[in-house]
Amino acid sequence: MWDLTKITALKNLSVPRDWSPFGRLDFWYYTVEPTGAAFLLIVFSENGASTGPDYYWLPLKVDWSGWKRFELPYRAFRPNREPLGWDRVSGLALYSSGYRDCVEVPGTKLTLDDMRLVAPNAEAGCVLGDFEFDTPAWQGLTRDTETKHGGEGSGKWADLQTTKLVRCTSVPHDWTGWDNLELWVHSATANQQQVKVLLYSDDPGTEKTDCYGFLLRVDWQGWKFLTVRKEQFSPNHSLVGWRKIDCLTIGADGWGLKALPDTCLWLDEVRLVRKSPEHPANEGRPAATAGRTTGDRSRKLVAGERK
Questions:
Q1: Which domains does the chain have, with CATH numbers?
Q2: What is the rounded CA–CA span in Å between residue 3 and residue 213?
Q3: Are 54 and 84 in contact (CB under 8 A)?
Q4: Is beta strand 193-200 parallel, antiparallel or unpaired with respect to 180-187?
Q5: CA distances for 81 relative to 23, 46, 153, 237, angstroms
Q6: Which helix (H) or strand (E) segment is 43 a member of?
Q7: In a 10 Å sphere around its CB, with 0-12 CB exposed, 13-18 middle and 19+ buried, how is residue 14 labelled?
Q8: pLDDT in the model for residue 230
Q9: 17 Cβ partners below 8 Å, 6+ apart?
Q10: pLDDT tens across 155-179, in order?
């Protein structure tokens, strides 16, 4: 049992160093009452080239009673400074004080059980954004809990004349095993706005920026399910290839594009998928439950039995 007032930090430095084969951190927590206390979950990934500690962090609030299961995808964590990546993890810690987001409430006690790393199920795809949490991995989007397709939130892209692009850097870098990019997009109006989906695969040995591009015309209102096959992306300049994707951007500026004043878009359930015999191009595939995977490959970090 963790008494958050008496013990302000729990650390585990004997964790696997490479978390990249997994995609989610799961655990159970028990508390008698919802005290409103808040603590920080930190995954260290120290970078010797930066000044200060480097880590991924996520605040959690004690707003439940009894046992609660947490399923935290990596994209829910925010980076602090310049962590090296999920393939170079140096430790795990829980803090109940010492950070701005911590809220100390005397008497708060938690029991931790069955903490493990969970690998994603290939059939469920690789989720890039379901917006069940905040949007630290998506620059240019704000989380919206009103207009949403699945789950509890979506990513809102408003005022394209000011915010001319959105960028997701938390993507798998090797896309050779994936076939399609799927997403749901809600448009406030069918105004024929054109945006360009860009997948950067930059060759540092060339002067120009190297990327794959796909032009999308917003000719609908409301929600629309989109599937973009890899072969639909046009290569630009000297690409490294699908084995090295640096980031994903969606832009309404440059490339001859112009942001229209009445454009407002919402993104939801953005994922990479593989083709299947039943759905050769995954056209019209029902959206999977946001924030969930059903894979059974895992690595236990904390053992125990819930009672």
A1: 2-120+297-302 (2.60.120.430), 126-273 (2.60.120.430)
A2: 52
A3: yes
A4: unpaired
A5: 21, 10, 27, 32
A6: strand 38-44
A7: exposed
A8: 95
A9: 87, 88, 89, 90
A10: 999 999 999 999 998 888 899 989 9
